[in-house]
Amino acid sequence: MGIVFQHDANATPIVTVLSADFDAYAATASPKVRAWLAVSGFTAKPHTFALLPNDDGQVAAVVVGVSHVNDIFALSHLPYALPKATYTLVKNVLTPYASALSWMLGCYQFSRYKKSPKSTAQLLLQPSQEVTRALQMADAIALTRDLVNTPTEDMGPAHLSQAAHDAAREFGGSFREIVGDDLLTENYPAIHAVGRASHRPPRLIEIVWGDPTHPKIAVVGKGVCFDTGGLNIKGADGMRNMKKDMGGGAHAIALARLIMQAKLPVHLQMLVPAVENAISGNAYRPGEIVATRAGINIEIGNTDAEGRVVLSDALTLASEAKPALIIDFATLTGAARVALGPELPATFANDEVWFEKLQSASVASQDPIWRMPLWQPYNEMIKSKIGDIVNTGGAQGGAITAALFLEHFIPKGQAWIHIDTFAWNLKSRPGRPDGGEALSLRAAFAMLETAYQK
Fold it and tell me: Known catalytic residue: 34?
């Protein structure tokens, strides 16, 4: 573990210095330290550090540059960069939460198949409520990353279901899943249609937790464990990373875990439609009409727009309980990435109060989102000539038309937030290695934690 709580008198000190305060820090340092920092070129820029030697040539202390006191990536470059030892924060400008979370994010590696050749340095911290919260968040982020990073052979619908089952069992939630042809019996035809071509049957995963008298919150996540594109098959480049297409489901499971672990006073329903969009003789086809739980008939313009199809049944079920809020996560469109790039999840909301809560939480948790419009005139783009709605909207405004498609399955007056997240880092940065990522998880949990203080 990257953080320890047992006292170690030999722990090496780490001094954190705000970049804006470096001159003041240097002025109070000894001439020897000032000279060493000058030779090293250290000016306390964020994500830089300097090792201060003692007279024996060993590390006497570490000086770290920090941008601001709540920077959750301030220490993330250190766990693998520092000599293996135990360190302790002295004269620390960071909050306990930022200290713990930034260190743990820096410790993360996906090592299921390839072990790291180097272990991390350890940080000694004092136990506190803030440190506990940070470690819980770090665990949830690691869970999201692990689920997304795992290849589909080991992360099919049943594996994703097991992850949800494990979270429910650990925190006292009830778990159920509806599998295969039972989806037809219980009226989830859209989930079944998309997933029926795979040798691994589709399923709807559900966790229910909390006091039924508390406000109801529904969390929904797209769980397409691999997306070939179906019969409208993807090209090689587009298919390469489609193990990540269950990233919305990973976010939903991680958020449910945080809610249960924090014992928020809510009644939680988490839903993940888990499928593989595969190709076989019984694959659903372009031009077909797919029925839904809501009674809305979907014309299939392209089998590669499958995420919104499986979400339609899950959102309908979530709406039936009339929760205070439905929030869904989905790696839904490439159009969102074209519009906003890989780091800004496109966010749609039909309720101003809830969106303002999410926006505030996003800023506070350093987990950016960007609002996009539910532009109603674009509903013309998803009208079907032979059904009620078509699952493709043309070459323009793709993230918007996908969100408008989902909105058809949200009853009027039902508060709803849709997050079109990438769930992936294209490049490595401190605390954010390339691969699976939790983008919008911190913001969503901070929103609910603020709205429902115990």
Answer: no
Residues 201 and 55: their CA atoms lie apart, in Å, by: 66
Catalytic: which of 145, 216, 244, 308? Answer: 308
Confidence category of residue 201, pLDDT binned at 50, 70, 90: very high
Q: Which of 365, 136, 317 is nearest to 219 (CA)?
A: 317
Could you tell me the CA-to-CA distances from 289 to 183, 271, 283 in Å, in that order?
17, 24, 13
- The conformation of residue 324, written as its DSSP 8-state character, comes to S
Span 62-92, pLDDT tens digits: 999 999 999 999 999 999 999 999 999 999 9
Q: Give 136's strand partners.
A: none
B/e letters for 171-210, b = 16+ CB within 10 Å, e = fewer, are: bebebebbbeeebeeebbbbbbbbbbbbebbbbbbbbbbb
- Does 325 have pLDDT greater than 70? yes
Please confirm, yes or no, whether 432 is among the known catalytic residues: no
What type of residue is 125? L
pLDDT at 117: 74
